[in-house]
Design a protein that fits this description.
The complex is a heterodimer of chains A (300) and B (199). Chain A is mainly alpha-helical. Chain A has 14 helices and no strands. The chains are: A mainly alpha (300), B mainly alpha (199).
Chain lengths: 300, 199
C-alpha cells in the first residue's frame, strides 16, 4: 500500500526514504505547493533537533576497565578442546583422593577374576551385574553440587559447577572404562570369549545408567537418582530372568540374559540410544542453567 | 547554518549507507572475538548512543555507565545479531532497554520517556550563533512531551526509518507517524503562543 505523502515528508526531510519512494515524492513535491510548505516545516524542525541535541555536546568517555577486562577473545575449537582436556585432567586430585583409585582397581580386578568362578557360558555375569552399578555409585558421589563442600570453591572460579561435574565424571568414567577394559581383555584371553562381546556387556549399561544418574541428580539429588537408576537396572534384570532356573530343563541364565549379552541385540542398541539422549539432556540442562545465570547477572 | 548543512549532507549520503551498513562488518568481527572492532564501533556509535541516553535520563554519569553496559551487551550478543536491522537500531534498542532497567532499579533518577526533559540545551556561545527563530524552536522542542521529542530525535538525529524507530520504542509504525504529526502540531501551537507573547 502506498503511503500518504504527508507521512513520507518527515522521513524525506531526514533522508530516510528509499529511492523509489523518494523519486515519487519529489515528483509530487514539484506540483504540490502545500507539500513543499510541509517539507519546509519539517526541515525547520529537523534543523532544530540537530542543533538541540548535537552529538558533539557530550565527549565520549573511554571504554571502562570493567568492559575491557570482559573482552577475552572467543576461544577457537582447538582451545576449547585443550581447555576441556586440561579441566578433566585437573580433576584427578579430587577423583583419586582418599584411595579411590586403588579401591576401584581392586574392585574391578575382583569382578573380573570372579568371572572365572562361573561356568564357561556365564563368565560375563559379574561384569554385567557389577560394573554398571560401580559407575552409578561413582556418578552419584560426584554429582552432589549442593551437598559436596568442594563445590563451594566453584563460586570463586570462572568454571561453572556443570562443567566441573562433567569433567569429574569424564575422568572417573574413563578410569572405570580403562580398568574394566583391561579386566575384559584378561577374561577374553583366558576364556576365549570375543573381546567386543566382553566389553559391550558392561559398557552400554554403564553409559546408560551413569547418564541417567547425572540427569536425575540435576533434577533432584544424587540419592533418589541412584535409587531410580539402580531400581531400573534391577527391574530389567528381573524381567529378563523371572523364569525359574532351579529345575532341570529350564533355560540357563545365559539364555535368559542373552538380550543384554549380545552386542548386536536390540536391547543393547536401545541402551546406547538412551544413553546418548540422557547425556544430551544433561548438557542442555547445564547449558540452560549457565545461560540463565549469565543473563541474570547481566540483568537481561 | 550548521544544522541545515548536516541535514543536506545526510540526504546526499543516503544511498551509500543504506545499501551497506559499515558497522555490520564490525559486529561480525566482534562476534569472532575482535576487541579492536568493539573499540571502533564504540568510537563510531558511542557518541550517538550517549546523547540518546543522556536525553532520556538527564544524568550524564548514569548515561555513561549505561553506555558501557550497552557495549558489554554488544560484545556478548554480537554472535546472535543476524543483521536484519541496522547496527545503530540494534544498539539503540539495547540502550533504551538498559535505560528503562536502570530507571527501575534507581527510582530517584528522573526518567524522561514521558516527562519533560531537563535542559540539555547547547552552551551560551552556541546559542548566541543561532538565529532567534532557531532559539524559539529549540525552546519549543524542549517543551514537547518526551515520547514526541524521542520520536523526533530517533528520526532526525539518529536517522532511523519509521519501522526502525518503531522497533526501538516498541510501538507500531503507525504510532511513530502519529507522534510525529502530533509533535508538529504541538510545535506549531507552542511557536504560535510564543509569537503571541512577542506581540
Amino acid at each position: 500500500m502506498r503511503e500518504h505523502p504527508l507521512d513520507q515528508i518527515p522521513f524525506y526531510a531526514a533522508g530516510m526514504l528509499s529511492d523509489g519512494s523518494r523519486a515519487a515524492l519529489e515528483q509530487h513535491l514539484s506540483v504540490c505547493p502545500a507539500c513543499r510548505s510541509e517539507l519546509a516545516n519539517w526541515e525547520h524542525i529537523a534543523v532544530g533537533m540537530i542543533s538541540l541535541t548535537s552529538e558533539q555536546t557530550l565527549p565520549l568517555p573511554p571504554l571502562s576497565p570493567i568492559v575491557r577486562t570482559s573482552l577475552r577473545p572467543h576461544p577457537t575449537a582447538v582451545q576449547v578442546l585443550r581447555f576441556a582436556a586440561h579441566l578433566i585432567w585437573m580433576q584427578r586430585m579430587v577423583i583419586f583422593r582418599s584411595g579411590i583409585f586403588p579401591a576401584l582397581a581392586l574392585v574391578i580386578l575382583m569382578v573380573s577374576l570372579s568371572g572365572l568362578l562361573f561356568p564357561q557360558g556365564e563368565v560375563l555375569f559379574p561384569l554385567l551385574a557389577l560394573i554398571p552399578i560401580l559407575g552409578v555409585l561413582i556418578t552419584a558421589m560426584l554429582s552432589g553440587a549442593q551437598s559436596d563442600p568442594a563445590y563451594e570453591l566453584v563460586a570463586t572460579t570462572p568454571t561453572r559447577p556443570g562443567a566441573l561435574i562433567y569433567a569429574r565424571l569424564s575422568l572417573a568414567l574413563a578410569t572405570i572404562i580403562c580398568m574394566a577394559s583391561a579386566g575384559s581383555f584378561f577374561l577374553s584371553a583366558i576364556t576365549l570369549q570375543p573381546l567386543l562381546r566382553t566389553i559391550s556387556v558392561w559398557l552400554f549399561p554403564l553409559l546408560l545408567l551413569t547418564s541417567l544418574t547425572t540427569v536425575l541428580s540435576q533434577l533432584w539429588s544424587p540419592l533418589p537418582a541412584t535409587a531410580i537408576a539402580l531400581g531400573g537396572w534391577w527391574g530389567t534384570m528381573f524381567l529378563l530372568t523371572r523364569r525359574s532356573t532351579l529345575y532341570p530343563g529350564d533355560p540357563s541364565l545365559g539364555d535368559l540374559l542373552a538380550p543384554l549379552l549380545d552386542p548386536s541385540s536390540q536391547l543393547v542398541i536401545l541402551e546406547l540410544i538412551l544413553a546418548l539422549v540422557f547425556w544430551a539432556a544433561g548438557w542442555i540442562l547445564f547449558s540452560y542453567s549457565s545461560y540463565r545465570s549469565v543473563y541474570q547477572e547481566n540483568g537481561q | 547554518m550548521m544544522g541545515y548543512n548536516i541535514l543536506m549532507e545526510r540526504r546526499s549520503d543516503l544511498i551509500s549507507w543504506r545499501t551497506d551498513d559499515p558497522d555490520l562488518s564490525l559486529v561480525r568481527a566482534i562476534a569472532r572475538g575482535d576487541a579492536r572492532a568493539l573499540e571502533e564501533l564504540y568510537n563510531h556509535q558511542g557518541p550517538g548512543i550517549l546523547a540518546y541516553l543522556f536525553n532520556r535520563l538527564g544524568d550524564r554519569e548514569l548515561a555513561e555507565e549505561i553506555l558501557q553496559d550497552v557495549m558489554l551487551a554488544v560484545w556478548q550478543g554480537a554472535g546472535r545479531f543476524r543483521g536484519k536491522s541496522r547496527v545503530r537500531t540494534w544498539m539503540l534498542s539495547i540502550a533504551r532497554y538498559k535505560a528503562i532497567n536502570a530507571w527501575q532499579r534507581s527510582a530517584p533518577v528522573a526518567m524522561h520517556f514521558d516527562e519533560e526533559l531537563p535542559d540539555p540545551a547547547p552552551g551560551p556561545s552556541n546559542l548566541a550563533t543561532q538565529g532567534d527563530a532557531l532559539k524559539e524552536l529549540s525552546a519549543a522542542l524542549l517543551q514537547l512531551p518526551d515520547h514526541q521529542r524521542e520520536t523526533l530525535e530517533l528520526v532526525f538525529n539518529h536517522q532511523l526509518s519509521c519501522k526502525e524507530a518503531a522497533k526501538v520504542m516498541g510501538v507500531s509504525p503507525g504510532t511513530v507517524k502519529s507522534r510525529l504529526h502530533r509533535a508538529k502540531a504541538s510545535l506549531r501551537k507552542l511557536l504560535g503562543s510564543q509569537e503571541d507573547n512577542h506581540a
